[in-house]
């Protein structure tokens, strides 16, 4: 064999060697193209929203492998429907590529009902959303804690903290109206300063509402100004001259009129 090579001119051997190298390269690239299925690509169809079995059949019929990678729960999506796919729809990939699916669970997972009594409405709503629960109906009951959760219910029945409920369940709230349940006589604030009235009303869980300066008066220090009128008044004068006490509840407001001078004895009674 070596004699055959040495008996031929060098340039002939060089050409033969180059030819062999070229042939090997052609064979190599041809085999790579076959092994990697070069230029044999497919577009991934959209299967989001389809039932998982339907999605599998479609993808496998197009030559893709399919794997369910994860499951989540969305109450606004059909059970066992595809919520996400990877690669995404319309991506161009090689034939035989695995398409990974995320599907919606068939059964809503259970979560533990928290104790939201005493929470403000907004805080309770955000807490429910963080657990995957929904806000239901709201109603009100007399209670000085305005918009605070007093009761939590499902379908009109109280639900105890720690109860297991399905994610997506609607929770109804009974909220405080901000007004107490029991009535009291309207306090007489005439002649008090605004500061004194605030302190006194705080002991009754009643607050000052509008503070209006009497016409023609100039008040420079509201807290030390005198109350000359109030609404509602402590009592009403009946037709027979008798007095009937007006009522107010905790949480309600009492409006006052003020002046830089104390009211006269006649106007205070």
Q: In words, what does this structure look like?
A:
The protein has 269 residues and is α+β, with helices and mostly antiparallel strands. It has 3 domains: 64 residues, Trypsin Inhibitor V, Chain A (2-Layer Sandwich); 67 residues, Trypsin Inhibitor V, Chain A; 77 residues, Trypsin Inhibitor V, Chain A (2-Layer Sandwich), CATH 3.30.10.20. The protein is 22% helix and 32% strand. Strand 8 and strand 9 form a beta hairpin. The longest helix has 26 residues. The radius of gyration is 41 Å and the shape is elongated. The mean pLDDT is 87.
The CATH class of the largest domain turns out to be Alpha Beta
Tally the beta strands: 18
Pick out the low-confidence regions. none
Main beta sheet: strand number and arrangement? 4 strands, mixed
Helix/strand structural class: alpha+beta
How far is it from the N-terminal to the C-terminal residue, by CA? Answer: 137 Å
Order of helices and strands: HHEHEEEEEHEEEEEEHEEEEEE
The fraction of residues assigned to DSSP E strands is: 25-35%
Q: What's the overall geometry?
A: elongated
CATH topology of the largest domain: Trypsin Inhibitor V, Chain A
**Proportion of residues in helical segments:** 10-25%
CATH architecture assignment of the largest domain: 2-Layer Sandwich
Radius of gyration: 41 Å
Mean pLDDT: 87
The helix count comes to: 5
Quaternary organisation: single chain
**Order of the strands making up the biggest sheet:** 7-11-8-9
- The total domain count is 3
InterPro entries: PASTA_dom (IPR005543)
Transmembrane segments: 12-35
Keywords: Membrane, Transmembrane, Transmembrane helix
Pfam families: PASTA
